[in-house]
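for the recovery benchmark. tokens below, seq after
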């Protein structure tokens, strides 16, 4: 079996200055490493987790090392998207993908021109009948206990790629997508409608027309070419009930100073310096509600409107769900991981103690908080998947 790297080192994650660079503790020394995967990976990047790095093979590189993998719950996960096509080629050539045993690789980085538009695809396959198969390869690193979703950030480019694949299929080409799920515990796969609803809608539309698969692969710390543990199921009915622009959300904000502020009819309220998590809901137009909260200039309506103008917005986290009581149960879950709350903020119309919670650490980098988000976005779907 082919080993991808000659020298692999273990280091501890300490930070991410930008999308393509991480800071690491390598045997007590602080080092920079290039991160070839630009995804958000909020569910993986926590202080102290083990990352796998290799010496950078480019002498003029800005960093000495390059990240190739990370651990989650003791399981090795591949992060180096530079090798996604190599992995796909290995699996196809060794007939390890169920249902694709007839196909073999003809060419990589194959360009097709249709109606004046050129598109490049990762792999061109063929079979003994001479059929041609245009294949896109995607690496999936967004997981829950037993599920996987893609993408972990909005990708308009990815959505357009799906539409082009369907268009080529209508023109007589055989087209598809291979999702390499880098988590062998994943049993099911869905487009991430929480993060990118438009991608999910497009995927739902085109999936029946494409030859696509999501396969769970298993790695070890030698980063030898993986095996396919199984093909993930596709519980498409969940998209019918859950993939709508409604549900609940958490707004994550930072206040860099203590503040006494008048909040509408509530009067003066005190806010500690720190990070804040506000839990809300929208029965329709969830995307617009989150975008409104992000703006500073607007007509004062909700409690959050008064607070928003004094803090930095970190992120808006939508959770699209059909559950009726999700807002209050989510607020209770966030309260369980927070360090303090602002009494009765945002909860005038319910029995909750508050819907605004605080902590000293950025919640996005706090594993307990991100576990709450994962539970509401993905783990709660297990019951629907198995029903």
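predicted aa per position
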């Amino acid at each position: 079996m082919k080993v991808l790297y000659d020298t692999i080192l273990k280091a501890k994650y300490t930070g991410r200055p930008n999308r393509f660079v991480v800071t690491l503790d390598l045997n007590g020394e602080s080092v920079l490493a290039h991160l070839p995967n630009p995804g958000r990976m909020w569910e993986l990047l926590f202080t102290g987790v083990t990352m796998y790095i290799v010496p950078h093979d480019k002498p003029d590189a800005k960093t000495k090392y390059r990240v190739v993998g990370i651990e989650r719950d003791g399981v090795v996960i591949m992060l180096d998207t530079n090798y996604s096509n190599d992995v796909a080629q290995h699996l196809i050539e060794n007939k390890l993908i169920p249902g694709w045993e007839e196909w073999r690789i003809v060419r990589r980085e194959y360009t097709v021109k249709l109606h004046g538009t050129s598109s490049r695809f990762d792999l061109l396959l063929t079979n003994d009948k001479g059929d041609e198969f245009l294949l896109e390869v995607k690496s999936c690193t967004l997981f829950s206990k037993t599920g996987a979703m893609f993408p972990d950030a909005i990708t308009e480019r990815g959505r357009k790629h799906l539409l082009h694949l369907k268009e080529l299929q209508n023109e007589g080409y055989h087209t598809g997508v291979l999702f390499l799920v880098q988590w062998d515990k994943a049993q099911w796969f869905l487009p991430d409608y929480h993060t990118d609803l438009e991608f999910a809608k497009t995927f739902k539309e085109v999936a029946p027309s494409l030859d696509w698969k999501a396969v769970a692969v298993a790695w070890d710390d030698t980063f030898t070419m993986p095996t396919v543990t199984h093909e993930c199921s596709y519980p498409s009915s969940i998209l019918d009930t859950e993939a709508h622009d409604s549900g609940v959300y958490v707004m994550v904000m930072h206040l860099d100073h203590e503040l006494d502020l008048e909040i509408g009819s509530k009067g003066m309220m005190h806010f500690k310096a720190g990070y804040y998590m506000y839990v809300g809901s929208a029965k329709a137009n969830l995307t617009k509600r989150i975008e409104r909260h992000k703006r500073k200039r607007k007509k004062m309506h909700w409690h959050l409107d008064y607070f928003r103008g004094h803090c930095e917005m970190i992120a808006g986290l939508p959770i699209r769900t059909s559950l009726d009581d999700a807002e209050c149960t989510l607020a209770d879950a966030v309260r369980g991981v927070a360090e303090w709350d602002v009494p009765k903020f945002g909860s005038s119309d319910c029995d909750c103690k508050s819907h605004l919670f605080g902590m000293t650490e950025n919640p996005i980098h706090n594993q307990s908080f991100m576990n709450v988000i994962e539970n509401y976005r993905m783990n709660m779907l297990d019951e629907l998947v198995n029903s």
